[in-house]
Amino acid sequence: MEFDKKTALITGSTSGIGLAIAKNFASKGANIIINGLGDAQEIEEIRATIAKDFGVQCVYSNANMMAPEEIRKMIISSQEQFGSVDILVNNAGIQHVCPIDEFPEDKFNAIIAINLVASFHAIKAALPKMKEKKWGRIINIASAHALVASPYKSAYVAAKHGIAGLIKTVALEVAELGITANAICPGYVWTPLVQKQIPDTMKARNMTEQQVINDVMLSAQPTKKFVTMEQVAAMVAYFASESAASVTGTVTPIDGGWTAH
After folding, report:
1. Given its phi and psi angles, is residue 164 left (phi above 0), alpha (psi -120 to 50 degrees) or beta?
2. Three-class HEC string of 147-197
């Protein structure tokens, strides 16, 4: 299979987009490291199911994406078990919706830490082994908000714009070493994270739930449809493939036409 003997580590992969990405790579033969929050029993069921259904090794790391040392230990442990982390998908993210003059400082700092700074630490830790093997794929799940802004999302937009710059810089640094670095920029994907945004957006904009979905979220996407998790996972798999060996330094939307406006 396409990713036999490869290892993929996906942060924030106990649910949502990250879990869809993990399953997609597992279906193509990659060994998997999942990471994220949740009920311990549910996470173990997820891990065991991936291993059983796809016949690959799947392990779980509970590394806190706000703790640089835990991120480094997760990468090192994965390298010790599998030889290297061949495919690093920085997907973990959190969100908070609030006017900037009311934005809680702890929320702002946490969003920057998890959505941006964690990627730096993971990339830094994973790159030496990738350089040794002269092969690697670094893929960040950014957002359409890496390309455009929306009101009340100052921290998230700042972090995702930062990811665009980070991934371009990494791509240039490793361009001759068989390693690619790209960012994928989904529009609104129907995930637990998006669902959790709705009450905050209702409050910030004084809207009903249906108004938030129709007039805020899907109004930005000309297709008037949510992007699916499976569509994002398929794009990630493409960027990791040999077909995409010359695709690097890109910040690519999958947003139903949002950023074509």
Report:
1. alpha
2. CCCCCCCHHHHHHHHHHHHHHHHHHHHCCCCCEEEEEEEECCECCHHHHHH
Dihedral angle at the C-alpha atoms of 56, 61, 62, 63, nearest 10 degrees?
Answer: -140
- Yes or no: say if 25 and 237 are a contact pair by the CB < 8 Å rule: yes
Query: What tokens appear for 143 in the block?
Result: 């957002």
Tell me the pTM: 0.94
pLDDT at residue 193 tops 90? no
Q: Quick check: 196 pLDDT over 90?
A: no
Classify each residue of 165-189 as buried b or exposed e, where b means 16 or more C-beta atoms within 10 Å of its C-beta.
ebbbebbeebeeeebbbbbbbbbbb
Distance CA 32, CA 234 (A): 16
Question: Annotated catalytic residue: which of 60, 152, 156, 188?
Answer: 156
For the sheet with 179-186, list strands across it.
58-61, 31-35, 7-10, 87-90, 136-141, 179-186, 251-254
Domains of the chain: 7-188+227-260 (3.40.50.720)
- 58-61 and 31-35 strand pairing: parallel
- 256: amino acid identity, one letter: G
CA separation for the pair 115, 117 (Å, rounded): 7
Query: 28-86 pLDDT, tens per residue?
Result: 999 999 999 999 999 999 999 999 999 999 999 999 999 999 999 999 999 999 999 99
Residue 156 appears among annotated catalytic residues = yes
